[in-house]
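Reposting from the mailing list since nobody answered there.

I have sequence plus structure tokens for a pair of proteins and want to know whether others read the tokens the same way I do. The first protein:
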Amino acid sequence: MRTSIQLRGEEQVGDRIYAVEVRADADESVVVDLVGALPDGTVVAEGGLVLPGTDLMTAGQLLERTLRGLAVVQDAGKPAAKPKARTPPANAGRPWTPDQDAGLRRQWTEGAVGLPALAEQYGRSKWAIRARLIHLGCDPARAEPDAANEAEVATKSN
């Protein structure tokens, strides 16, 4: 029996809304996605982690210490870098359909399309594609196709 867990939380900090989504399968990887956005949907922060379930406490403590240290430096008067504003992918936060799962699994298994092209096609971030591949039992760490091959495949499918 396979147990999986999905958690999502949001927190408003000033004019930004931060969303954290965590997906985990028992005794396997844990995927953590973070997105910070302005009220109009403009993404100002985005990132993700894929961790072995056995390393969660250590990674959490390291992240906490690092972020607390950065906050101290910022509060000491050093100017913070201005975040690059970008809009979230079209399907960010939406559930995956069975057809999308089947298509993603097929395309990844065939090996002709890389993460950037899949992210564009499915309207998701590269981290969301990686996380979904893990959920589908695919290995997102396999070698990516080169850009010329990917462009050729895209041209043939149109």
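The second protein, same order (residues first, tokens after):
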Amino acid sequence: MQITSRTEYSVRALCELCLHDTPQSLRKISEAQKLPIKYLEHLFRQLKQSDLVSSVSGAKGGYFLNKDSKEISLYDIIEAVEDINSTTECDRIENSEYCIGKPCGFHQVWQEIHYDLKDYYTKISLEYIYQKTKEK
């Protein structure tokens, strides 16, 4: 699991929502965070499907967080916008010529790393990230 632009932009956009008590349009988020609006449209569809945000229509409409920022983890965001794949080549390709046996020691190490990262990302809240960004 690496932090891609999808995750980074989603976190930045969600931190922007933390700043405001009212729904924010994608245009406002885009301008404030200097993010491409088309990319945000795609990301917010995914964030909405994952129930991290909701939207309100109308002139004063926009997006808002569905939960308190303390209850949204970095892993929740990653899970919403990324295709999380913790499998190894041995898992993906039956009888891979590069597989040295199932399960091999490497497979176990990669799985442990995946679970450790998931645990770590789960402990980092959006609120924590937001507070860190305010320190600069």
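Reply #1 (J.P.):
I read it the same way you do. The chain has one domain: 5-135.
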